[in-house]
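Tip: read the tokens left to right.
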């Protein structure tokens, strides 16, 4: 026969241990005693601990740099230069392609153009960048800012370099304030030579990853 002390200890142990979920809640239902709220986002992106940190990105391929630009020549040219320097790169010519790439790969750095193809009636070169971004948002057109938001949601600490062909002074401080808290964020004019871009990549992430 158990002593009163042993009985109390057994009672406390039962209260601490998680209980089996009721019948019928194991398939598709949610146990009320679950410690983790785990959801799958895209392909292999796991958001764990409800209300907690970013969670884990499982079973992803790896590449040094993601380059997002609607100009295929720029994407291929950047790939050529990065490859010569030993860096692996994945290219995307739209927001949707960038989204798919981020679901498949784990990147060390992201480089995105600001204007991702907004149609012939959009003249970014004669608009202030801030007004351009606001107009694109109102019309539901994806821009480099949407890529930045996407990356920050999935890879909060990954450095981001935003490239644009126009003056960015009117949005620079806002971008730093909103998107630069957890990871490095900077701008670069697209007129700058590719060799300077490669130098910037090396300054930010160091040497290329070692691939087996």
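Filled-in amino acids:
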């Amino acid at each position: 026969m158990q002593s009163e002390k042993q009985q109390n200890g057994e009672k406390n142990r039962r209260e601490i241990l998680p209980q089996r979920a009721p019948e019928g809640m194991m398939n598709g239902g949610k146990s009320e005693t679950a410690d983790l709220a785990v959801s799958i986002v895209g392909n292999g992106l796991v958001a764990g601990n409800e209300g907690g940190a970013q969670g884990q990105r499982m079973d992803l391929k790896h590449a040094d740099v993601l380059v997002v630009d609607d100009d295929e020549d720029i994407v291929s040219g950047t790939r050529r230069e990065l490859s010569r320097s030993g860096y692996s790169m994945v290219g995307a010519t739209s927001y949707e392609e960038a989204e798919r790439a981020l679901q498949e790969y784990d990147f060390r750095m992201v480089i995105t153009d600001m204007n991702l193809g907004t149609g012939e009636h959009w003249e970014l070169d004669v608009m202030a960048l801030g007004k351009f971004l606001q107009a694109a948002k109102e019309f539901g057109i994806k821009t480099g800012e949407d890529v930045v938001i996407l990356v920050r949601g999935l890879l909060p600490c990954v450095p981001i370099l935003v490239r644009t062909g126009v003056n960015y002074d009117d949005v620079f401080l806002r971008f730093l304030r909103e998107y630069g808290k957890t990871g490095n964020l900077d701008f670069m004019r697209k007129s700058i030579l590719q060799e300077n871009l490669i130098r910037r990549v090396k300054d930010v992430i160091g040497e290329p990853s070692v691939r087996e």
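The mean pLDDT is 75. The CA atoms of residues 159 and 204 lie 7 Å apart.
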